[in-house]
Write a structure and sequence with these properties.
The chain has eight helices and no strands. By secondary structure, the protein is mostly helical. Helix 1 packs antiparallel against helix 6, helix 4 crosses helix 6 and helix 6 packs antiparallel against helix 8.
Amino acid sequence: MIGRDILSRLIWGAQPVILWSSLATFCAYVIGITCGLGAGYLRGQADRLLSFIANMMLSFPILVLYLLVVVRLGPSGANIVLAVIFATSPSVFRVVRALVMKESRKDYVLISQTQGESLFRILGAELLPNVMGPIVVDGCLRLGYTAIMIGLLGFLGLGLPPPAPDWGGMINDGRAMAIAFPHLIIFPCLAISSLMLSLSVLIDNLNGDGALAEMPS
């Protein structure tokens, strides 16, 4: 044993996991939503170009993209955000694009076009609020996946640099002493599992209420 308090490291380790996973997911969604809105509404050449880029990025396994970015640039919170943007924004783009293409055929969008509303108003004030429900639910799910991936990178030694406490890093540090002191890996695993469980419950509540899953036009 090296005299570290497990509870305090778990509490402090929650901060970077939640902070960086939330920030990374938010940045990925800003890019994915912006590109998806434009491609789904404008279609044509812009849609083909953005879809080609997204499909090309999605052809790489997600873990490989994470490892390429983090190994190349070094372990840090900013580089984890960059890795998540590369790995997540293409799939977010495809989800938003499909929602916008379906929504843009509805009457209220045609009426907005007939009234001569600007492109940015149609995208931001008409289409975006009406596709936000599924996007929020999808975002909660991807936030959990991002937190797991940050833990996996920490377990591989590619997460946040020491001495910052990291749930994945704590599991990696405790492997050698897991037989004698199993709590060194059990409690970080429980912390990651509880975060995923809480997000799953949140998603179920959002879907069950219907307020976000099906918003009125």
